[in-house]
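Can you give me the bound-state structure? Components:
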Amino acid sequence: MPEAKAFKGLKARELPKQELFSQGHRACQGCAGALALRLILKAIGERVIVTAATGCMEIISSPYPQTAWKVPWIHVAFENAAAVASGIESALKVLMRKGKIKQEKIYVIAIAGDGGTADIGLQALSGALERGHDFVYFCIDNEAYMNTGIQRSSSTPFGARTTTSPAGKKGIGQMTWKKNVAEIAVAHHIPYVATACPTYYQDMMNKVKRAVDTPGPAYVHCLCPCPTGWRVSPHLAIEIGRLAVETGVFPLYEVINGQYKINYPHRRLKPVREYLQLQGRFRHLTDEYIEKIQQRVNEEMARLRALEKFGSFYKSVSAHF
Amino acid sequence: MAKKIEAIASWKDLPLGCVIAQPGNAREFLTGDWRTQHPVLDKDKCIRCGRCWIYCPEAAYSENEEGFFVCDLNYCKGCGICAQECPVGAITMVLDSD
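Here's the bound-state model for the whole set.
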């Protein structure tokens, strides 16, 4: 991938000034998902076609007869953002080959929420990744179905209280662990997979740029804190994302051609309690469950660090066989 | 404060396939009246780093000729992210009623 290799990263002083996601969208106060969309479009630029599945980010950006998007955008049903994106990519390829439109690079991206990715759209995503279309799939993960009123999805973390996984005498909220969709994407052996968080805006924009410049499919998983659903004060939306990364609950990493690289956290992990105690959805958790979550986070981080460390070793050894 | 959206008179007025022909026309809807508090910038403390601009989910901040980032109160929803994330504490949130 020549373009992706040449790209060194955006400089903090030279971030693109152009706003392609306009003001006046209907997101809640402090919505990090809307910020993620803004950063994604800033990094990619104008030459892009966006497909969006149903979800918060579709609802807030396109209340008919208005739209916040300044780029071509299509809303599709909940399950097929990836399918429509692959169709658009194929159509562009054919039209360019037949000379119907000018030969140029037009990026195709699909945007869906965690419900549209991990639950409903998983088979469309898997199919599109397997067929190898040149597109980028963004999962805007706010860890529940927020637009219909905070119902649990398979991306909801252990212990979180939602309206369909209530906490009380019998239960502690969500009883299962969060589905790791980024790992599912890695298992397709696609050239680029990354996790990002809008708190680390420069890191996120670099990953977006690298993802769109990679030929072939790419997948970017963005954790976007939702003050309404996570029961956090809106002004802490960025801070909570930082804590999610620093405690190791949501590590930021890239997988380029199967090779892992952890970007954050690179220091010692903070205790998960700092992340959990800020949020109303974890307020009912007792020390026993917090310890359980801490243990799981430690295991996951150890696994990820091992993958990073031994990945290159494995590659050099397997080259001799 | 917000511009009222007129009810659409007839289906004949709609474009084919309900396409929205003006990109970014959500700008016509002013979200500033959702707010209870607004950011106030102390220009003596400001180091013009632009964190408020890059972190604003509403894209309400823009750079002026002097290089300061100023908030467009027509769109600011008053979430307070800019005040929280300002590294030198140059932004404070003030209640609209004061």
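A couple of observations. The mean pLDDT of chain B is 87. The interface with chain A takes residues 5, 8, 18, 20, 22-31, 34, 50, 54-60, 63, 72, 74-75, 77-81, 83-85, 93 of chain B (CB under 8 Å).
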